[in-house]
Prior knowledge:
The protein has 3 helices and no strands. By secondary structure, the chain is an all-alpha fold. Helix 1 packs antiparallel against helix 3. The longest helix is centred in the N-terminal third of the chain and has 27 residues, at 2-28. The mean pLDDT is 96.
Amino acid sequence: QAELDEETAANVRAERDNILATVVDPLVSNPLRWAEMTADKQTEWSQYRTDLLDVPQQSGFPNTITWPVKPE
């Protein structure tokens, strides 16, 4: 069971890292795109990024997790 949990945890982290690398960070780290957003949208994206980083701290990790919802 522990080995399965470790593998599941690694897979979840890889999926999270992929979302960060392909969806969030290109937007958050691009000054022009970031500057075009309203303050509310910037807050939503910052919270989304934080929530993704906090996925491993969820109580059900790695078997029961709730993925944060990407801002529109």
